[in-house]
């Protein structure tokens, strides 16, 4: 009888606990789309995830951490005869992401607040080229996916190439400091 009572109490307490679960993303299906802007236009492309997890507690988002494979950066708005390979090489060079020395970037959620059903305001530490800066964005979480769109200021990560804030006389050669990212996580 004493053991039965102990088991019943243990089951009652366990049922009342909310368990945290880490959900791995499908890195092959998840993608980051980027758009970089300059005075004379823009370029678009993608970069792939290496790995990542979302942490859910009671079905609600509580955390996340991701590694981005920066060597996978690709330009999608140009073809080979339009300079696609040249631009991809430049984005991988030290002027931009320095992928030989910094092959990955990291995103680590620091705070998550539920904004509305399935929508969370996330503040994360983003590390690019060994430099870390905060980013805040809304993440919409569905049954097997999560999406967000936000801006990143490249100069916070020591990417200053053709930034009017660091170089004078660039005229039409200015590349704007902020670039757009649209993230689609599949898990």
From TrEMBL:
Keyword Zinc-finger among record annotations: no
Protein name: YceI family protein
Gene3D superfamilies: Lipid/polyisoprenoid-binding, YceI-like
Keyword annotations of the record: Signal
Coiled-coil stretches: none
Pfam families: YceI
Domain Lipid/polyisoprenoid-binding YceI-like: 22-186
InterPro entries in the record: Lipid/polyisoprenoid-bd_YceI (IPR007372), TTHA0802/YceI-like_sf (IPR036761)
Source organism superkingdom: Bacteria
Signal peptide interval: 1-21
SUPFAM superfamilies from the UniProt entry: YceI-like
